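Predict both folds.
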Amino acid sequence: MPRALAEKKHWKAWAGQAAGYGLFAAVLGVFSHWPRYEALAPDVAVVKVSFIHHGARAQPCRAYTAEELAKMPPNMRAPMKCGRERLPVAIEVAIDGRPVLSRVAPPSGLSRDGASSVYHRLELPAGEHRISVRLRDAPGEAFNHVREATVRLSPAQVLVIDFDAATGGIKLT
């Protein structure tokens, strides 16, 4: 092949490659600005209920008898026998007196011995709201953790409702 023809083909290859890259950049530029995405409407706030918590044991622990302890190997002699199964955790959330969430979360795990988990997302108009949260993690019908608060939510604010037994129960952060 003559040298002039090879240089001509080489120049056309470079021009084609530049046109291809330019077209790709133009497509990226268009789709990076269109369609416009907004996570929330302008005057909306978000409330997220999110926690992982172990319910109480389904059966209370009991002490081993002296005969039961004698039958066990020395390295297995724990003073108490506790069942593995846990109770489900129930939660109810009301905002401005209107119930918005009522859920019973079963314990995880094959033996129903793991933590119960809840995640729920609500969108609310920004402004002042009265939030009431009730949680039951023990036997019985009564809710043993209750928290009520009036909060002022600004636009695009995210309020998280969490549960932490070590720091006092239901938290609004």
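Second protein follows, with its predicted structure tokens after the sequence.
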Amino acid sequence: MKASKPSVWEQTTHNGETPLFLAVSNCLLENVSFLLINGCNPNTKNYEGSSPLLTAVVRDSYDTATLLIRHGANVNLQCASGRTALHEAAKLGRKDMVKLMLGADAHSQASDSSSILLEAARGGNPDSVTLLLKYGADANIPKISGHLPIHVAADRGHLLALKMLVPVTDLAAIKQSGISPVHCAAAGAHPQCLELLIQAGFDVNFMLDQRIRKHYDDQRKSALYFAVSNGDLSSVKLLLNAGALPNQDPVNCLQIALRMGNYELISLLLRHGANVNYFCRVNPLHFPSALQYTLKDEVMLRMLLNYGYDTERCFDCPHGDKVHHLYAYEGWTSTVIKDTMFCEVITLSWLQHLSGKVVRVMLDYVDQVRICSKLKAVLQNQGIWSEIHFILTNPRSLTHLCRLKIRKCMGRLRLRCPVFMSFLPLPNRLKAYILYREYDLYGQGIFTGSW
């Protein structure tokens, strides 16, 4: 016996779409109503697993969704990825649609464990979030990635939704996730959300868990690193003023600011204790790595030197007056170059024209130093050599030597912490001299330091 043919209402396209599904997809409300009245099944999915109700919500058609529910559409039907119509309504931020489907399971999770509340946080409508919370939605259910609704709201910059989620999110759940909403607000460049989280007591020094860090090539850990990478001055100020530590990441935050050439960002980090003497993990040099970004810019160079950069290490060359060994290549390559001397770098063919000006500035921060034969040979061809030679061959002034002695007694850690100076019982003029204020070009309003 032959199987009976499906009725005209049940026939489908090659994608498994019924006439009702097509009418819903095209938002043809009258056609939808006609088909439902004539007995079309509102729960027949297409081959991709989407139901007419889910499609109506995706099309943002409240009237169509209402019609379907009145004619028996199952609000708990899931698509192939486990999402229900309520997931989509929450994502749209449509409170009216969310309210329409409150008969659905508010605890339903998609195949990636994304909860309905998380989708509401993504949509950003605080009324939808409030409604779901009243209906019993749990703010502490993570998706597979570990993210909670509070993370999504912070990342998207949904301030009002974030306010709703802060008091109902457990710190234990955040710790378990391995990432703080502070990271998310900083990564998304949302200073208002960041300020809310700081005022709520979230730790600005919460570090990314290793399982999260491994997704970043630079192995970043801190929220401050995200803000600095974005060049987001407002967020950087908020974090630093709240006590964020600037030296916690494998790649120093100061290194990122120096790469950008952002004076204000550099100044902010230095004033809050950024380490000017960090060493880069890639191509480590004999001298602290920060200098390589300032060779063409006196303003940045002076910033580093004023905050205790180890200038003497730049003149530390084991060859002295002897002839330097010749290298088969010149400069940096993809191969790691270990412990390259300053004299080898500044005498490179494309940098040696800067050597005189750079060395002259450095001499303001040291006592008598020895210039090795290789560096000397290059400096002698510079117009500023006579001034450099005079400084190298004559005694330094007593005031200069006293300043160096005081700075040495203070130590580089205190030089990186300007607040320390305010506790010293010294006249302000002397404090300014010790801190090289006369060479603070950025503080004097000089915003371009190219030689």
